[in-house]
Structure to design on (121 residues):
């Protein structure tokens, strides 16, 4: 199946920035949409942003709109999440996900193991 590996997490102060990356390998579908989710301590998994196969369509969760930007480079088989003006409430494990379809939808078939983002006050 598809193998997803996240990187780029770390500890930053409020107002700082990070760029997360997700490298895709394995038996990838012909076309696949991708997304970022996060899970804060004691909370359920939350949708953050998604991008279509072509990269032409993106969707952001309201709490990160204007601060985070999702993108992808299919030639490199990578997806990114630019995170700016980070807030303590952004602290979470961030997960990369992929779906066996070109368009953005609510279900995802493959998941990475996550990368920790910690934002201090």
């Amino acid at each position: 199946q598809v193998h997803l590996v996240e990187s780029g997490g770390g500890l930053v102060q409020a107002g700082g920035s990070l760029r997360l990356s997700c490298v895709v390998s394995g038996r990838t579908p012909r076309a696949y949409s991708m997304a970022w989710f996060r899970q804060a301590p004691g909370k359920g998994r939350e949708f953050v942003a998604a991008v279509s196969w072509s990269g032409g369509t993106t969707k952001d969760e309201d709490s990160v709109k204007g601060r985070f930007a999702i993108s992808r480079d299919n030639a490199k088989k990578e997806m990114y999440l630019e995170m700016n003006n980070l807030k303590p409430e952004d602290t979470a494990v961030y997960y990369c996900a992929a779906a066996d379809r070109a368009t953005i939808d609510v279900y995802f078939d493959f998941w990475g193991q996550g990368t920790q983002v910690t934002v201090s006050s």
Observations:
- The radius of gyration is 13 Å.
